[in-house]
Amino acid sequence: MTGARLLNVVRLQIFCLFLFELEESLAIAAIITPLPVQKKNSNKKIAIAAMSFGTRAQLGAIQHGSNELGWTVRCFVSAGGHYERMFAWKPDGVFINIDDAEESAPVHRLCVERGIPVVNSTWDCVSRPSVPSVAFNSIQIGQSAAEYFRELGLASFAFVGHPEFLYSRLRLQSFAESLEASGATVNVLHDAEVFDESIHGPQYELSKETLIVDWLNSLEEGTGIFFANDRQAFIIGEIALHHGIVLQGRFPMLGVDNDPFLCEVMHPKLSSIPVSFEGLGITALEMLKDHFQGQLDPNELRVLEPLPIIFRESTEVQISADSLVQKAMAYIEANLEKDCRVVDVAKHLGVSLPTLHRKFNDHRGHTPYDEIQNRRFRQAERILRETQMSIDQVSIDCGFKSRARFSNAFKERYEMTPSEFRQSYSSNNVTLKR
């Protein structure tokens, strides 16, 4: 073999060795750096079956689907149960946003026949549903109302609701049971016609209004009225206004839903227990996502807890059968921004500290110190929700000596900082139907 040929053979062997090492390196790199994995849940088409457009649950689902999941979410409305257009779109999943069980059942059946997964929104379930569902916790809502009225030191209570709706019955049940421990009873006003929740307005009838007026006049002064929702409170408020009945200063009133329109236009403005209607839609889509990943129980029920009460004029009134307690509360209200101490209240009234404590425990169910703190925190809640005032200024306006002391006390009470509390309400300012 000539020298030239030998040199070529050596060069070829070196080149082959280089290719072998290169291939091995690429193989190792492929193992170390895996290829991008396509999202399993991307590009899903989700339909919302509803009886009307524009609910907050629909908005929550549409925004969450688009912004967080990368899905296309469309709303299909039919008052007669005809959803041919929805099925022609060939959705990957359906969120049934129909409150009436009889109306939602046929839609569910049609989806099952076509093999389309479904999540249902329902006002309440007390047992495992036959279809994956999301609901509000009306048991907790009723308990929250009872706890708040007890905090106000009320001695008599009433409830207004619709006898045929499960959410109303559950809220009454838990409200009444929570008050029974203290020996209290609840005066109930149930009416299926006046409080009908159709898309149409309430049907006012003089005979019905007379009964409601008589019922209001029969209540003891200072009775706390818990309404199953804000709409029912608004209707009662309109009837009272029409017949010249003054509610403010007579009956502390509390609704549910925190409907921005109904609560603000009612006379007086209505305190309310907020529930996240947007959360219904968001949770429904999260449940569909779990279904696509094989992680959803076919009978699963997810329950949404109520949010902290929004305080307005309807519960700002402080009624007490004891004149000394009434004067003490007036003094506390007028001096919240100052370093209002229990000893200052007693000194202003000319009574001893033991006497003041005994009076408050007897007529309010808590100590004077609790009264001061409760009012400070209610004021802080209102300022944080409704203004962009600095946390430093909020602490001053609510009578705390420093921002640090206010923030620590607030976090201990609400399990979140004042800034987090403000942020939790900043995304719930859309005025839409439920």
Q: What is the secondary structure topology, with strand pairs?
A:
Blueprint: H1 3-32, E1 45-50, H2 56-69, E2 72-77, H3 84-88, E3 93-97, H4 101-113, E4 118-122, E5 133-136, H5 138-151, E6 157-161, H6 166-180, E7 186-190, H7 206-218, E8 224-227, H8 230-242, E9 253-257, H9 260-265, E10 271-274, H10 277-292, E11 301-304, H11 323-334, H12 342-349, H13 353-363, H14 368-386, H15 391-397, H16 403-414, H17 418-426
Parallel strand pairs: 1-2, 1-3, 3-4, 4-5, 5-11, 6-7, 6-8, 8-9, 9-10
Give structural attributes:
3 domains, 12% strand, alpha/beta, 5-stranded parallel β-sheet, Rossmann fold, disordered C terminus, 434 residues, 11 strands, globular, Arc Repressor Mutant, subunit A, 50% helix, 6-stranded parallel β-sheet
Summarize this structure briefly.
50% of the residues lie in helices and 12% in strands. With 434 residues, it is of the alpha/beta class.
In CATH terms, the superfamily of the largest domain is Response regulator
Helix content: 40-55%
For this entry, what is the oligomeric state of its chains?
Answer: single chain
Uncertain residue segments: 26-40, 427-434
Tell me the CATH architecture of the largest domain: 3-Layer(aba) Sandwich
